[in-house]
Amino acid sequence: MKKNIIFVVNPISGDLDKSDLIEAVSEFSATNQFHLEVYETTGKDDIRAIQELYSQYLPERIITAGGDGTIKMVAEAMETHDVIIGILPAGSANGLSVDLNLPNTIEENLKIAFLHDYIEMDMICINGKKSIHLSDIGLNANLVKNYEESNMRGIWGYALQAFTTLTESEEPFVATISANNETVEHTARMIVIANSQKYGTGVVINPNGAMNDGKFELVILKNLDLLLIGKIITGNMPIDSDDVVIISTEKAVIKTDYPVNFQIDGEYCGAQTLLDIHILHKQMKIAIP
């Protein structure tokens, strides 16, 4: 009996042509005696389509090629099923693959995605939406919004938006945070809700994060002057700084004194004044090196 594998490809993620990737996956499947079903996402009813394919083929694994958004969609589709998700990084936001230390070559990633062991990974639920990686409210979400609205892509588009975002940034907001049976108030420029350690750029924002410990961290950045931002961007996050507060918890409520821009896993989600957050422990199985 051949084992079934479903391959979910986001054809437009990262503006890369996926035909070579699909060919590589097909060859690897054939060599290793897997039966492969390829599904290309359309942005319409993908979750239902993936669930139907799952019911039809009952695959041992679902391999995804795309960014964090594609992985998250597959995880949501498979929420009630016991299936291992393998990742071939191929999106513009590959934060999760950076955090899992996935290698750079397609050959190595194919082996991991198809054949390697897995971890049971947590997800975070924020106002009913799922986050697998990093979400934040404040400065970085402004950046995500500006980037989505601009037509310049790639690292320069990002750098330009970063500069614009910083120079035009609004007043700090006041956040009232209830977690671990206590309520605290902080004036902040940005609060990161982190299941893991790094942004997709490789920037470490949450040094103590673990993706399967049943907790998430709130990283509160109070006074984001250019020096502190420079340190964060270069990966020298000053943990002992008075400007950074980290709260580790299983659930939290954040209220802000005015609507503040919010993003989940690189997707802009509007301005919010209330975030209700809890951990979903061991929610999905992800193949790792």
Brief summary of the model shown:
The chain is of the alpha+beta class. 29% of the residues lie in helices and 38% in strands.
Textual characterization of the structure:
- The chain is α+β, with helices and mostly antiparallel strands.
- The chain contains eight helices and 14 strands.
- The protein has helices at 19-31, 46-57, 68-77, 95-99, 106-115, 139-149, 154-167, 226-233, and strands at 3-9, 34-40, 61-66, 84-89, 118-126, 129-131, 134-138, 173-179, 182-188, 190-194, 216-221, 244-249, 251-264, 267-287.
- Strands 1, 2, 3, 4, 5, 6, 7, 8, 9, 10, 11, 12, 13 and 14 form a 14-stranded mixed beta sheet that branches.
- A hairpin with a 2-residue loop joins strand 5 and strand 6.
- Helix 1 (19-31) packs across helix 5 (106-115) and helix 2 (46-57) packs across helix 3 (68-77).
- The two termini are 27 Å apart.
